[in-house]
Write a structure and sequence with these properties.
The complex is a heterodimer.
Chain A lengths: L2 H10 L3 H8 L14 H5 L10 H9 L3 H5 L12 H5 L6 H14 L8 H16 L4 H9 L4 H10 L1 H9 L17 H21 L3
Chain B lengths: L6 E6 L4 H4 L2 H10 L5 E5 L5 H14 L3 E6 L15 E6 L12 H23 L16 E4 L3 H12 L4 E4 L30 H10 L3 E4 L2 E7 L5 E7 L4 E6 L1 E4 L3 E3 L16 E3 H11 L14 E5 L19 H15 L4 E6 L9 H10 L3 E12 L4 E7 L4 E7 L1 E4 L3 E3 L36 E3 L2 E2 L15 E3 L9 H24 L14 E2 L9 H5 L5 E3 L5 E3 L9 H5 L5 E2 L5 H9 L13 E6 L3 H11 L7 E6 L7 H9 L4 E6 L13 H9 L2 H7 L7 E5 L7 H16 L7
Parallel strand pairs in B: 1-2, 1-3, 3-4, 5-6, 5-11, 6-7, 11-23, 13-19, 14-15, 14-19, 15-16, 28-29, 28-30, 30-31
Antiparallel strand pairs in B: 8-9, 9-10, 12-20, 16-17, 17-18, 21-22, 24-27, 25-26
Classes of the chains: A mainly alpha, B alpha/beta.
Bound molecules: iron/sulfur cluster (3 copies).
Chain lengths: 208, 738
């Protein structure tokens, strides 16, 4: 268990709703859910999740910390925004899903082999380097995510797609050797650093 | 005014009537057959000029009975609002023109229809008398308000604002009722975010400051008699001294009692001191006066669970089957008592369906959520004492699991039970001469049908709550506030204001001898011929409004101002001695008898349709507007209520050769739509005897059909008539044609 996690358990004891309100992006909305179930009914993934949004919100209110944070449910969100559009209470459900996922990840509680999380990590590590996505490295990284054998197989399978993208100037093989960057790379990195700092401070500062 | 009847018949040629129907033929019939004294045709009768023509005849020619043969009686009512005459309408436009095709083949039967409606109108008005007020009213306009809670005080204050004096009678020693025992109220103003002061003190001050309101504390009503405009009430104090006062109308605001939570042992009431009702929590909050609320163990409450629908919306024996409407909002209000004092207090509202009615309901709910009140969709199965607090066992309906919650205090939302007095269906009225005061009764009426206002459902006093809120089945007595249906304070105030206005209207109408709705303005009233009366008591029992008492000799005693002019008594009377000036066994009988009856071999059957004027008749009118045709063999007669149908009409019709009879009344039973509440139900019981008549005449039972018709049945109502025409085609013509 990560230090942050223990710290948070200490701090909020049995009030998980307060913890979510304080630490999760848009988490202050969770208490406003009126349990109508419209989001769960609207979500194209609804039937395939362990806990659709309505249920997650109720679990948070019922203090089911462990169950919520270790759940793979919020990782399943495709950001289709169906729920946001329909929620009669105006909850930014999609954002809360991502907020919850992110928070679980930070606490080290997200399910270890969650593919969406793995992809998210790769994407993040990739983009913060230069401020631009390196498509080639990202794709290869994802193909080889589950080992060399599978990586080669997937790469061969995707060959035609890669070629097409190359012809359309969407993929440059030269990216392999560095790739393009934003104009002020160090400035961009400074922004990210600052953002992290703010977030840490927010979690520290909040008095439950 | 001379007693001589002088009939004027006025036939309109407008709206296309003149193009398709030979009106001069109608005029000839009116003159020759019906002995109309003055008969005129006009191109546009409802025009100022047309109406003036009629008025001139009334003023200069002594016409005092007017038959307007034009459009439906429901159209152009303002134009034909003629005073001091007996008046009727022959329905040619909606009743003939618009329900018949404009074809050559149809011409003959269409003309016959129009001629019959002319005959019917003239003979009907010929059997009428000019309605005049009874003079029974004493012209009292002041109000009696029974119950000094928020509803009662509001009614009195609102009446005072309108210039009417009232007497407020309160059983306890102080004004304010249930609301005076609450700490705050559900908000009534934007932004509907926080509980508000109850406002009871201001209301009491307004009552005390008004010179139009007289207050009797520690007093009850020990006798109510009379009728609108001349009620008399005995007001008796605790010590037994009685004063008798007279009133124009009465408002009953006797409120509610909180449901007895002792019937909910599974929810811990009576077993754990820390299980309380909503009213008890409000008392605790009042005591805490804004400070922290302590539980029975003296501990400042840190966690509280509200259990909604405790003993409500439940079919279980002894529980309330209904929703009391205010309790969800009340629990939100009470949860805020805690949250506003200390946001860290855990407050959980456990609901199965959260209902927050009213303009601000949803906002208040949201505000509760915003303040951190947790709403859990779950059903509590058991509450047990945990020493210093309680444990609530419940099923979480979202997470689908049995679980528990611990709380320092559990609050049960138990709901409202009406203080409606005695149930007259259970407790019959004392015999005349042996009448006694009942301590359980609110009004102690000396009415033939019972001591209190009839209850509609679940013990609440009300009658037709969709069309006529506040109205009870006792004319001039209005129920307002939670005695009428469960409600919160804001609704009670709106209710009381409405009831005050209705009460004023009732007193004013009574003064003028006019009926209350739905026949508002009607000046006629039932009268009866004592010589013929057999004292069968059917009228006194069946009157849906308890208008008829019995005198010492057990003859019916009509109280005009209590009467709503439905005619149920008239329909009930086996010896037909009850009648109105403008509606009687003869006015309808004359119409039935004077339809021309073609002989058996003419292939022109006749179908008598008796249609309730409140729903079925308008439905047929609207069908006509839409051009929904029906059989040319039908002759439709509007009646006040199916309850006014006297069996003699049906018997006469069958005897005189009608081939079928269709009766159209309103929906009866639990979800009745009858404007006179019980009329159509009573008629149905009465009509079950038609079978005997049919049998004695050896006629097929299909010849008489009774239907419930709603005002919206504009396709179905004509279809029912056509069905009868088809039935007759199948079973053949009646053999009783002469
Ligand atoms: S945005 Fe996410 S949670 Fe919302 S409906 Fe789409 S997939 Fe479901
Ligand atoms: S749609 Fe909105 S209010 Fe309804 S359950 Fe989902 S989040 Fe809650
Ligand atoms: S007309 Fe109706 S309300 Fe009037 S006395 Fe007869 S039954 Fe009662």
């Amino acid at each position: 268990m990560s230090n942050l996690n223990t710290e948070m358990i200490e701090k909020y004891r049995n009030n998980f709703l307060k913890e979510v309100t304080a630490n999760v992006e848009e988490g202050e909305w969770v208490k406003m859910c009126m349990q109508c179930g419209v989001c769960s009914g609207s979500c194209p993934f609804g039937p395939h999740w362990d806990h659709p949004p309505q249920e997650l919100f109720m679990m948070i209110r019922a203090g089911k910390r462990e169950e919520v944070l270790t759940s793979s449910s919020m990782w399943m969100c495709t950001s289709c925004y169906n729920c946001i559009v329909r929620c009669p209470r105006g909850l930014p459900i999609t954002h809360i899903m991502h907020g919850l996922a992110h928070y679980a990840d930070r606490l080290g509680m997200a399910p270890k082999e969650q593919p969406t999380m793995k992809f998210a990590h790769k994407f993040w590590d990739n983009i913060v380097k230069n401020g631009r996505v390196n498509e080639l490295k990202l794709s290869l990284g994802v193909y080889f995510m589950n080992g060399i054998a599978e990586g080669i197989k997937t790469s061969l399978k995707m060959q035609a797609v890669g070629l097409g993208m190359y012809k359309a100037k969407r993929l440059n093989p030269m990216e392999f050797f560095g790739g393009h960057t934003v104009k002020d790379k160090s400035g961009m990195q400074a922004i990210i650093e600052k953002a992290k700092e703010i977030e840490e401070a927010k979690i520290k500062k909040f008095e439950g | 005014m001379s007693d001589e009847k002088k009939i004027g018949t006025y036939i309109c040629k407008g709206c296309g009537i003149g193009d398709r129907i030979n009106t001069s033929q109608m005029a000839t019939i009116a003159e020759r057959e019906c002995k109309s004294n003055v008969t005129k045709e006009h191109d546009f009768l409802c025009s100022a000029e047309g109406v003036k023509m009629i008025q001139d005849d009334i003023d200069n020619d002594g016409v005092n009975h007017v038959a307007i043969v034009a459009c439906s009686r429901r159209a152009k009512t303002e134009a034909f609002n003629l005073e001091n005459v007996a008046i009727t309408r022959g329905n040619i436009r909606e009743g003939v023109l618009w329900v018949r095709p404009d074809t050559d083949e149809a011409q003959e039967t269409t003309q016959e229809m129009a001629e019959d409606y002319t005959r019917m109108a003239v003979f009907e008005v010929g059997a009428m008398n000019i309605p005049q007020t009874s003079g029974q009213s004493e012209g009292r306009k002041n109000l009696l308000v029974v119950g000094g809670g928020v509803s009662g005080m509001t009614a009195a204050v609102e009446a005072a604002k309108a210039g009417y004096a009232s007497t407020l009678v309160e059983k306890t020693g102080s004004l304010g009722g249930a609301a005076a025992k609450a700490w705050k109220r559900i908000p009534e103003h934007t932004p509907y975010a926080d509980p508000e002061d109850t406002g009871v003190a201001e209301l009491i001050a307004a009552v005390e400051a008004s010179d139009k309101i007289e207050v009797h504390l520690n007093s009850t009503i020990t006798k109510t008699s009379g009728a609108p405009g001349r009620f008399s009430a005995d007001i008796t104090t605790e010590s037994g001294s009685t004063t008798t006062e007279n009133f124009g109308a009465i408002i009953q605001t006797s409120g509610y009692t909180e449901y007895d939570a002792n019937q909910l042992p599974h929810l811990g009431y009576g077993k754990s001191k820390n299980v309380v009702t909503q009213a008890e929590l409000d008392a605790m909050a009042l005591e805490a006066n804004g400070g922290p609320i302590k539980n029975a163990d003296g501990k400042e409450v840190q966690s509280v669970v509200f259990i909604q629908c405790a003993g409500q919306r439940s079919e279980e024996e002894g529980h309330l089957p209904y929703c009391s409407g205010h309790c969800c909002l009340t629990s939100i209000k009470q949860a805020m008592y805690f949250k506003d004092n200390n946001p860290d207090i855990d407050t959980t509202v456990m609901f199965s369906d959260l209902r927050t009615p009213g303009a601000g309901g949803e906002d208040f709910y949201r505000s509760g959520q915003d303040k951190g009140v947790i709403f859990t969709k779950g059903i509590a199965s058991e509450v047990t004492d945990s020493g210093g607090g309680c444990t609530v066992k419940f099923k979480d309906l979202i997470l689908d699991e049995e679980t528990t919650a611990d709380a320092d205090l559990v609050v049960l939302a138990t709901g409202q039970v009406a203080n409606a007095g005695v149930d007259i269906d259970e407790v019959p009225q004392d015999e005349p001469g042996q009448w006694e005061v009942s301590v359980d009764s609110i009004l102690n009426m000396d009415y033939r049908q019972g001591k209190d206002v009839p209850q509609l459902r679940h013990g609440f006093n009300d009658s037709h709550f969709i069309c006529f809120p506040y109205e009870t089945r006792r004319t001039g007595i209005y129920a307002a506030g939670p005695v009428r249906r469960p409600m919160d304070m804001l609704q009670a105030k709106e209710d009381a204001t409405g009831a005050a206005l209705k009460a004023i209207q009732a007193a004013e109408n009574a003064d003028l001898g006019r009926a209350a709705h739905p026949r508002s303005g009607d000046l006629s009233f039932p009268s009866f011929r004592k010589e013929g009366c057999t004292q069968c008591k059917r009228c006194t029992v069946e009157c849906p409004f308890g208008a008829i008492d019995e005198d010492e000799e057990r003859y019916p005693l009509f109280n005009e101002a209590r009467c709503r002019r439905c005619g149920t008594c008239m329909g009930a009377c086996p010896v037909r001695v009850i009648s109105f000036e403008n509606y009687s066994v003869d006015t309808v009988g004359n119409q039935i008898k004077n339809v021309e009856m073609p002989d058996e071999f003419d292939e022109k059957p006749r179908i008598l349709v008796l249609a309730c004027e409140n729903d079925a008749y308008p439905a047929l009118d609207m069908a006509a507007m839409k051009g929904n045709e029906y059989s040319a063999f039908a002759r439709v007669i509007p009646i006040r209520c199916l309850g006014s149908t006297n069996l003699i009409w049906v018997t006469d019709a069958l005897n005189s050769g009608y081939d079928g009879v269709v009766l159209m009344g309103c929906q009866k039973g639990e979800n009745y739509q009858c404007h006179f509440v019980k009329g159509s139900e009573i008629a149905n019981v009465r009509m079950s005897k038609v079978d005997d008549t049919l049998q004695s005449l050896s006629l097929e039972p299909e010849r008489v059909a009774t239907y419930e018709v709603a005002i919206t049945d504009i396709e179905r109502a004509p279809q029912l008539i056509n069905d009868m025409a088809e039935t007759i085609e199948k079973i053949g013509m009646s053999p009783f044609k002469f």
